[in-house]
Design goal:
elongated; 5-stranded antiparallel sheet; alpha+beta; 31% helix
Length: 720
């Protein structure tokens, strides 16, 4: 006989029903879906010809349509396998669920209603009238029109189909918590409560080896169903009491061979677990219950136990041998997913530790620094190569560095760490930003050389970097960029916008594409705010990159000069970062402070023989105004005299002397037009050369040289 089509022929309910090939409600109206029982109280239905297969009893697919209140409006659960399910039209769908599963499934149903994204193929139990349960694969499908509600398709799970579906579901995430949760949900088909407890080393991503008795530590990684548990019961994220960890480990490692065990009833559970504290921690309720403990064993010599899965069920429904075999098979087929998640967690933790180690600690007295690093979601390919750094240079300036290494994982992390440390060393040695980028460019090219660098399929070509040096005396910033997005500058009056930085290819570009790195210099008066960032903060598939940078400028412009900078940085990231991150998000905010005018002094002297004497007189007069100690005054005067003498002897052109009062020290600088680098040598007693630098070395806490466009500056720091 022909069946009457439903009102919405393209709805998910009808699509699933058309796949049944057996039962479709007559007239398209809502039909009761109760199974045929002794009284024959089922509403009549029409059969659709199925090429002679109408008499088959192996139908395992069904469908239920729900309204937005999660009540059944149409149903197609007429196959014999669904007998006993009380799926009546108008009744709440949750009446089909065990009470403990209601919160979790309801949350999933509401989520599909709100987002319109299907929830596919999760293992679920349905409750029959007689109290028994049916294991199904449950999928929640949104209707074509939101007002029509949902369609829930159910597939009665044969043993092999169940194992296959469970293994498929468990392998979908590299997050160890989600992997353990998927395993617990799959095991729930055999029990009322399932817990998965992992060795703490597995949870943290470390390797697991044989451990001495009494030192075993288990942490609860997953627990289903989602419900309110009694006080003292161990829930996800909690460590099991030491006695409970030891007893569980001993239970599954009898005769030095991991194996599953069954404790059939509460009396036996009490005998095994002993104390009331362990009972409260491990037994999910006061009702009589039995448990099957299945070890998560990683094959090896010897085999390694990653943790234990505990499946609890009512004592009046004991585990059969075939069920215990199924439990062991499912765990054995999926334990490698737990180990993969452990390895991913280990790599994720290592890279994250490296990146956090590179985050700025302080910006010194002249710059206020705040940074936010937000790694990509755990399901991404791994932590990326974003890095930021900020550090005061010995000559009083502050370096701000941000970079983005191509790729994810340990290869990107290794390159990121190498480039970051190399940039810091070169900047501390006095090189200009463009010179540092030239060295980083060469480093990336060498790392990509299969003969001398990474030959494991990873390439850092195209990585980007931006370096800014802030001079707190002149309040100027010198900036160079290698393919990085332009920083955003907020002036003291609140105007914000990206800097007009000359575009340049990324690091390691082909020789034909290489150009000299440009240096962009701009003023940053006290109160200015500079934002450096990586593309994960501003990229959005729905808009251009310029629009993303504009949104960042608008967000940073709202930062008030009185705002706590770290809180402001977190607020900016929360405003801009995408909900589902595919890349790391990094932001560095630098609020320029600089030196007060009265804490610095600069003199320009001609390169004549009287320059050292004139410099000593001017410096001594200033130090007396600053109320400097006599011994410090004498040391600084001698130091300036030696540096100026050296400049007159070996350089040409005017000499610049600058004195800065910084913190607990005095910073002395002497600039000239020479290009020779002063070196401290080990001279003899009668040697004339090198005595001046030897005196400088003895009088200072540190000294060095930095290069400028017109020559060099020799700087030295003296404690005061």
């Amino acid at each position: 006989m022909d069946s009457t089509p439903s009102p919405s022929s393209s709805s998910p309910f009808d699509l699933v029903s058309s796949a049944l090939g057996r039962y479709i409600p007559s007239g398209g109206a809502a039909a009761p879906a109760g199974p045929a029982d002794a009284q024959g109280d089922r509403a009549p239905s029409r059969r659709v010809p199925d090429n002679g297969a109408a008499g088959r009893q192996d139908q395992i697919l069904g469908a239920v349509n729900l309204d937005r209140d999660l009540r059944i409006t149409r149903c197609n659960l007429d196959a014999p396998v669904f007998a006993g399910l009380n799926a009546e039209v108008g009744s709440p769908f949750v009446d089909l669920l065990p009470p403990g599963d209601v919160p979790t499934v309801t949350r999933r149903l509401r989520q599909v209603l709100e987002t319109g994204e299907a929830h596919v193929a999760r293992i679920q139990r349905l409750r029959r009238r007689d109290g028994s349960e049916l294991v199904v694969s449950l999928s929640i499908l949104p209707a074509a029109v939101p007002q029509e509600g949902l369609t829930v398709s159910v597939i009665a799970m044969a043993r092999r189909l169940h194992l296959y579906a469970a293994e498929t579901a468990i392998g979908t995430s590299l997050d160890i918590g989600e992997t353990a949760q998927s395993l617990a949900e799959s095991l729930l088909a055999w029990g009322d409560v399932v817990a998965v407890d992992l060795d703490f080393a597995v949870w943290t991503g470390e390797g697991v080896t044989e451990q001495a008795q009494g030192r075993i530590r288990l942490r609860r990684a997953a627990l289903v169903p989602d419900r309110a548990w009694p006080e003292g019961y161990v829930t996800p994220g909690d460590d099991l009491p030491s006695d409970a960890s030891r007893l569980l480990a001993q239970a599954v490692q009898r005769d030095d061979a991991p194996q599953a065990i069954v404790i059939p009833d509460r009396e036996a559970v009490e005998r095994v677990l002993g104390g009331p504290r362990v009972m409260r921690a491990l037994v999910p309720s006061d009702r009589s219950a039995g448990v099957a403990c299945i070890p998560l064993v990683l094959d090896g010599t010897p085999p390694v136990v990653l943790g234990v899965a505990e499946v609890w069920r009512r004592a009046d429904s004991p585990f059969r041998d075939s069920e215990l075999f199924d439990l062991q098979e499912l765990v054995a087929r999926t334990v490698h997913h737990v180990d993969l998640a452990r390895q991913h967690q280990r790599e994720h933790t290592q890279v994250l530790a490296l990146q956090r180690r590179l985050l700025p600690r302080t910006g010194g007295d002249t710059v206020e620094i705040a940074s936010v690093y937000q790694p990509a979601t755990p399901d991404s390919a791994g932590v990326g190569g974003d890095w930021v750094n900020s550090f005061p240079l010995p000559d009083g300036r502050t370096a701000l560095v941000v970079g983005d290494v191509v790729g994810h994982g340990l290869g990107a992390a290794a390159t990121m760490g190498q480039l970051s440390m190399e940039a810091r060393a070169l900047l501390s040695a006095g090189l200009a930003p463009d010179e540092v980028l030239e060295h980083l460019d060469e480093t990336v090219s060498l790392l990509d050389d299969a003969d001398s660098g990474l030959a494991a399929g990873y390439s850092a070509l195209g990585s980007t970097c931006c370096i800014a040096l802030y001079d707190p005396v002149s309040h100027r910033v010198a900036l160079s960029s290698a393919g990085h997005l332009p920083p955003v500058l907020v002036s003291p009056d609140g105007h914000a916008g990206p800097l007009a930085v000359r575009p340049h290819p990324g690091l390691g570009a082909e020789f034909a594409l290489r150009e000299p790195f440009a240096v962009h210099t701009f003023r940053a008066p006290p109160g200015s705010l500079l934002a450096l960032y990586t593309d994960g903060l501003v990229e959005d598939p729905t808009e251009s990159i310029d629009e993303g940078i504009g949104r960042l400028a608008d967000a940073v412009s709202t930062v008030h000069p009185w705002d706590a900078l770290q809180q402001a940085a977190r607020r900016v990231v929360s405003m801009l970062a995408p909900v589902h991150q595919r890349d790391d998000v990094t932001l560095l905010l630098a609020r320029m402070i600089g030196y007060r005018k009265g804490d610095t002094a600069t003199w320009r002297l001609p390169a004549r023989d009287d320059a050292p004497a004139r410099a000593r007189a001017q410096v001594s007069a200033l130090l007396r105004q600053w109320r400097t100690r006599d011994d410090t005054l004498d040391n600084v005067s001698l130091l300036i005299s030696e540096l100026v003498t050296n400049a007159v002897r070996f350089a040409t052109g005017p000499i610049t002397v600058r004195l800065i009062r910084a913190g607990h020290g005095l910073l002395c600088e002497v600039g000239d037009t020479g290009n020779g680098r002063p070196r401290l040598g080990r001279g003899g007693v009668l040697d004339d050369g090198g005595r001046g630098l030897y005196i400088v070395h003895k009088l200072t806490t540190r000294w060095g040289v930095r290069w400028t466009d017109t020559g060099k500056v020799v700087w030295a720091e003296v404690a005061r």
